[in-house]
Each structure stands twice: as C-alpha cells, then as structure tokens.
Amino acid sequence: SAVISQKPSRDICQRGTSLTIQCQVDSQVTMMFWYRQQPGQSLTLIATANQGSEATYESGFVIDKFPISRPNLTFSTLTVSNMSPEDSSIYLCSVLDEGGETQYFGPGTRLLVL
Amino acid sequence: AQSVAQPEDQVNVAEGNPLTVKCTYSVSGNPYLFWYVQYPNRGLQFLLKYITGDNLVKGSYGFEAEFNKSQTSFHLKKPSALVSDSALYFCAVRDEGYSTLTFGKGTMLLVSP
After folding, report:
1. How far is B17 from chain A (nearest CA, A)?
2. pLDDT (tens digit, 9 = 90+) per residue, A18-42?
C-alpha cells in the first residue's frame, strides 16, 4: 500500500488567514482526493485531484475557498482560504492504489481556527 | 447514487466476546465495499474490502466481513474482541465504475476489559 504523509500534522490559525496543507506519496498515483472530517462527523469529499487537470470539486466546495494543486504524480496541496471557525476540521489526503480498487489515507491535518 | 448506513453510533462489547459492527449499502451497480478504522488522533487505516468472489473476506487484525447481496449488508466481525480494538469504524461503498467513496457516519466500538 502507498505511504502517505501530510504537513502540517496540526495547526491553530486565526480567522481570515489561509493554510496550505501538503500531501506526499511514496509512489506515483493517478488519483488523489481531499476529504474533510468535521468534529464528530464522517468524511466528506472536497475534491478529486488528477495530475495535469483541474481538480473536480464536490457540491458545496468551491475552488476559491479550497484551491488545490497537483504538480506531479506524488504530490498535492490543499489550501483552506479566508478561514473561519467553521473550517476547524481534520483534512485528509487519500490516494487510489495502482489496481484502482483501494483508497489509502494520510494521517490527516488537524486544523483549529480561532 | 450510492449510500451507506451504519445504524449504531456505538457498540459495546466485553474483551474476549465476539463483535459485530453493522453496515448496509445502496448502489445502482455492483458494490465495492470497504471497512476502515480510525484510532484517536490518527488517520484512517484500511481494514478489508469486498470486490468480488468469496462473500467472507478477511482483513487486518483478525477482522472479517461478510457480503450479503440479498440484504445489501457488509457487517464487520471479529471472533474475540480486544481492548485495543476500541476505535471508530467506517464502512464505505463505491459503485463499480465510479471513483469516489461514500462513507457511513461511523460506529464507535468500545471494548471493555
């Protein structure tokens, strides 16, 4: 399975600021995903990020708020822009394995917005 | 559309007893089914999956799950629970041919000594 790392692991931010989360994979993958897990909630897909194309956002998520970069097959970033306390969540990076069957997840970035 | 239901917010079991965490799903095509576990302050760890083949699938840490097409269920089971199994468990489904997973709301498993 792919080994996924995320930076930062956690952060405390002031409202109105932005935070960029990095996701690094130890192998080349075509499909990467960004999820949000609000406190006590399940996972919600923010967007799918494929290398060489614009990210595809799910309903309720927009590029201006959550811009995503995917410069190569092992790396992606998610930016949470103009943060408010409602953005306090765990943000998880995920990849689809080579066989196209199983998604693996990074350790998550725990964000608290004050 | 695809959806997953985990009817129990919490399951309590004594160490050494068998455990079951329930999951039902809805897809229009063939389901790809998954179980993940989340320990406190950790990301999601893949436990097991059903894609095709034998209805009983075995996964990590002694867990297994049974795919039941007629009942559209994929319950997670373990013959003998450990205190260290206490965690949040998520069932997820993906319709064959689609790339996105849909997660259930999660079930907290508490194993008492």
Report:
1. 27
2. 999 999 999 999 889 999 999 888 9
